[in-house]
Write a structure and sequence with these properties.
The protein has 415 residues and is α/β, with parallel strands linked by helices. The protein is built from 13 helices and 13 strands. Strand 5, helix 5 and strand 6 form a beta-alpha-beta unit. The two termini are 23 Å apart. The chain binds flavin mononucleotide (FMN).
């Protein structure tokens, strides 16, 4: 009976345990979680989503306060085009988060940063260039491009001294997305070092339509991409993600030629995960009916989350002066439009409820959007119930080792 530990993820001469903990935005995949994955010989992701907030929380910096103060004059204005990120400060915050994580790294594994293109930050190209360059400057082992097609992202860092030595990968949900990416980047003569293939059962945003995500199947997409790469004689490690819940699930992909697996939901109930303890208990307690895929993210992508997420139906004033990570480059965000519509429809109301969109920056900042993978309802089977009725929070090491060594579809309970 094979187990994950019988396989290795290879980058040149480097050999890793083929387990990648996925990026979970706004510090759900904390440095502590990524550091554990790296210490245990795998790959851990941090995320650079809302990095100024993350730096403030981790290092008592004041990026958010300073930005809010600078743009205070604009709070009541629905035109947010003037609310821009200071690129120097953005680089500083990224440097703090990435640099101090890398300085703490122990063991043989690697640490990558998840970079979402949909964080357009009111100046998409300039901010993405700064985010990636600063992460490379700060010594990150690799960058995983996500939440977008990233057609121009490699070009933004092509002149960085680490462009060819750092590991660079992309998340796709279809062969077509990968083909477009490869075509657009052909002139740079720099292939991705790995491709994460994310299927419809993943947490976070989905790369499928709201009406058709359930018709797609991760195994079929991975097989299609593998055949294409073989036909093109391209040797790029494939890393499936989304719904890989046990070590045996992982082995089934590794047996079919996957280089590693990317997993996330199992780690949401670990001590190292950034979610507050109360929210971890919500994840543990959830049943299948408590989970939905909806369109409340202003990015336009479907997102899976617990129906009890406080973000759903909230109607706070857009918080772009403090955050503004989803402003599209012309100062627009779908939440601002939805919020203004509700305010206009309810003149004089103290508070409105916005059902179709949420202020995702604020919600993620406050851990009020409880995004999760499809199988979050099985988390209760991965732990023990304590006398007070709550579930025992796990260690990242326990979950990592369970993926690495378990067989027969079994899940090890904490000792
Ligand atoms: C709480 C949570 C937050 C996530 N946030 C992000 C994110 O910010 N960026 C991203 O590319 N993927 C994100 N994902 C997707 C994961 O990185 C991963 O690819 C996927 O969830 C794997 O499937 P699994 O959760 O079923 O193991 C998130 C997943 C979860 C559960």
């Amino acid at each position: 009976m094979k187990r994950v530990d019988d396989y290795r993820l290879r980058f040149g001469k480097k050999e890793l345990v083929p387990i990648v903990t996925g990026g979970m935005g706004v510090d759900i995949s904390t440095a502590a979680l990524a550091l554990e994955a790296a210490r245990l010989g795998g790959v851990g992701h941090i995320s650079d989503a809302m990095v100024q907030t993350v730096s403030d929380r981790r290092f008592q910096t004041h990026f958010v306060k300073e930005k809010s103060k600078l743009y205070k004059f604009n709070v009541a204005n629905s035109d947010k085009s003037s609310v821009l990120f200071d690129l120097g400060r953005l680089a500083e915050a990224t440097h703090n988060h990435v640099g101090r994580t890398m300085a703490a790294k122990r063991g043989d594994g690697l640490i990558f940063v998840n970079c979402m293109e949909k964080l357009t930050m009111n100046a998409p190209r300039e901010t993405l260039r700064v985010r990636m360059s600063a992460a490379l400057d700060a010594g990150i082992d690799g960058i995983t491009l996500s939440a977008g097609l990233h057609l121009g992202s490699f070009a933004l860092i092509a002149d960085h001294p680490r462009f060819r030595d750092a590991k660079l990968g992309i998340i796709v949900s279809s062969l077509r997305a990968l083909q477009i990416f490869l075509r657009k980047n052909a002139r740079l003569a720099r292939l991705p070092d790995y491709v994460v293939v994310e299927g419809p059962l993943a947490g976070g945003h989905l790369g499928f339509g709201i009406d058709d995500w359930m018709k797609h199947d991760l195994r079929a997409i991975v097989a299609e991409i593998r055949q294409y790469l073989a036909a093109e004689k391209l040797d790029i490690p494939l890393i499936p993600a989304g719904g890989i819940f046990t070590g045996s699930d992982a082995v089934s992909y590794l047996e079919e030629g996957a280089a590693a697996v990317q997993v996330a939901t199992r780690f949401t109930v670990t001590h190292e995960c950034g979610l507050p303890d109360k929210v971890k208990q919500e994840y543990f307690r959830s049943s299948e009916e408590d989970i939905e895929v909806n369109m409340i993210s202003p990015t336009g992508y479907p997102m899976r989350m617990l129906k009890g997420s406080p973000a759903i139906g909230d109607g706070i004033r857009p918080n772009c002066e403090a955050y503004g990570y989803l402003l599209d480059g012309a100062g627009n965000c779908a939440y601002i439009t939805a919020y203004n519509r509700e305010v206009a429809a309810h003149p004089g109301a103290k508070k409105v409820s916005v059902k179709d969109k949420t202020c995702l920056c604020t919600a993620m900042r406050n851990f009020d959007c409880w995004t999760c993978g499809h199988y979050a309802y099985r988390l209760k089977d991965t732990s023990r119930r304590l006398p007070d009725g709550s579930y025992e929070v796990l260690s990242a090491e326990h979950v990592f080792r369970d993926y690495q060594f378990s067989t027969d579809g079994k899940i090890a309970l904490p000792a």
